[in-house]
Amino acid sequence: MTAVILDGLVLGLQFGLLGVGMTLVYGLGGVLNLAHGQIAVFGAIVTSLAMTSGARAFWAALIGVAFAGLVGLLLDRTLMRPVYRREGEERVLLGLLLTLGVGFVIEGLLVWRYPIQQLSLNIGGSAVEILGVRMRTGSLLASVISVAVAVVLVLFFRYTSLGKAVRSVIQDEVGARLVGVNPNAVRSLIFFVSAALAGLVAVTRSMTSPILVTAGVNLTILALIVTVVGGLGSVSGAFLAGLLLGVVHTVSSFLIGSYITTIVLLAAAALTIVLRPAGLLGRPG
C-alpha cells in the first residue's frame, strides 16, 4: 500500500499543477477553460514531433510547453476578448461554450493530422528506494519538476511585483485598475502561464504513462474536479486537492480497478460540494 500511496502523491502533484492553471484563469477572468486538457495534449504532441525531428528530449519539452502557452495566449487575445466584456452568468456561459468549442477543434485537428501520435518519455536510470519502495526514475523526475514549479509559483505570487499584481486583480479588479495595474495584460500573462502549466503536466505525465491525442477530455475533467474540490480561485486549494485526489485515484485503481476511478473522483467532488460548497480552501461567496 505504501507504493500505491507514493504513486498517488506523484500523480497528485501533476493534478495540482493542472488544477492551478485552471483556477488561475477562473480567478482572474471568471472563465472555466474547457480546452485546458486539449491544450495540454497539444503541447505533448508538439514535444513528440520535435523529438521525432531530432531534438533532444529537454529542448523538445521546452518547445512543447512554449507552444502550449502560445495557444493559451492566442485564445486570450482573440475569443476571450468578447467574453471579458460580459458580466456574471453571461460571461461564464459564453466562456464555457467558446472554450468547449476550442477544445473540440484542437482535438479534432490532432486526431485528423496525427491519429497515432503519442508522447512517452522513457527516463533511464535504476530505480531508487524510498520508504522501502523502489520508485522509477521517471516518477521521481516528474515529482521533482512538479515540486520545483510549485515552489516557483509560490515565490512568484508572494514576493514579486508582478505576482502581487495578479493577486490584486483576483481580489479586486477595480481597485487594481486604480493603482495602475492593467487587468488585460495580467489576464494574458496568466492564460499563457496556465496553458504552459498544462503542457508541462502532459510532459511530466508522459514520464510514467503515454499521452495519446485523445487524452484531452480526461485531462480537462480532472482539472475541473481538482479546481472544484480545491475551491474556485484558490491556488493552494488546487495543490491540496490535487494531492488528495491523486492518492484517491491510485488507491481506487488498486482496490477496485481503473475503470471506475473517474466515478470515484466525481463522487469525491460531489461530496465536497455538499459539505463545503466553496471547496477545501475556497472563500465563501
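Next protein, fold it too.
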Amino acid sequence: MGDDSDERMTVEVVEVSPQIHVPHEGGSTVQGEVFRQLLQQAIRVADQANAQSVRMAADFAEMYRREAAIRGEYEAKLKELRLMEKQTTRYAEDLAQMLRTERDRREELERALQQERLANEELRRTGLQGISHLLLAATLKDQTTGAHLLRVRRYVEAIAKRLGLPEELVEEFGYSSVMHDVGKIHTPDHILQSEHHLSTEEFDVIKQHCIDGELMLGDAKFFETARAVAREHHERWDGQGYPDGKSGTEISLAARIVSVADVFDALTSKRPYKDAWTADEGMASITQGSGAQFDPDVVAAFQDLEREGIIERIRQEVGSAKLY
C-alpha cells in the first residue's frame, strides 16, 4: 500500500486500541497488569484462530487433492469405457456381418443339399431301373434265377436287420444282393445248365462271373456295394475263396451276408445237377461252415432267424415265384 493507506491503518489501530491512562501514582501498576493479561489472552485467541485456519486450509487442500484424484480416475475410466464402447460396437458390427454371411452360406448349403438329394433320388431310380433290366436278362437266361434272387434278398435284409444295421443299409444290402450273380450273363449256357459236376476248366469259367459282374456294374457310386457283392460273394472267411483270396473283415460285410444267404438257398433249391436239400440240412451245412467259409456273426444271426421261423416263412412266401 501507499503512505496514505499506512496512515489510515495506523489511525484505525490507534482508534480501536484501549486507551491507557497512566495514573500518577499507585493505580498505574494495577491497570498495566490488566492490560498485559488482556493482550496475552488476545494473542492466544489469535494463535488458536490462526492454527485452526491452517488446519482447515490443509484439510481443504487434502480434500481437493482427493477429489482431483477421484476425478482423474473417473475420467480415465470414462475414457476406457468409451474405448470399450467403440470396440464393442465394431465387434457387434463384425458379428452381425459374420451372421449374415453364415446365414447366406447356410441357405446356399441347404439349396445344394436339396439339389444333391434330388440328384441322389434320380440316381437311385436310374440305378434300380438298371438293376431291373439286368435281372430281367439274367432271368431270361436262367429260369431258376428269379425266385433264388428274391429269396436271397429277403434273407439278406433279415440278417442285416438282426445285426442292427441302419434301415438305409438294410435296403442297400437288399437290392445289391440281387446283383451277386449278374456276371453269369456272360457264362456259356452249356456250363450254366450243366447237369454234371463241372470240370476244373469249366469251374474256372464259372469263377469268372465274379469279375464279370463287377465290370458290368461300372463305376457309378450307386453300385459301389453291388460291385463288392458281385466280386466277393465267393470269398471265404478263412481266405480260401475266390477270386482274390480275401479273408475275414477284408471281405465287405454285404458280401459276407450274401454268401450265407446264397449258399443256403442254393443248397435248399433244386439244380440241374442235384436235388434240393431240406432246410435242416442246409442249416447244418451253414453252421458247419461258421468260422471257416462264413463270418461267425452272420451265421449266428441266421441261426436266430431260423429258430424264430423267419427263414421258413420267407421260403414259403417266395416259393417258386419269379420276379416278373
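About the second fold: Confidence is low (pLDDT under 50) at residues 5-22.
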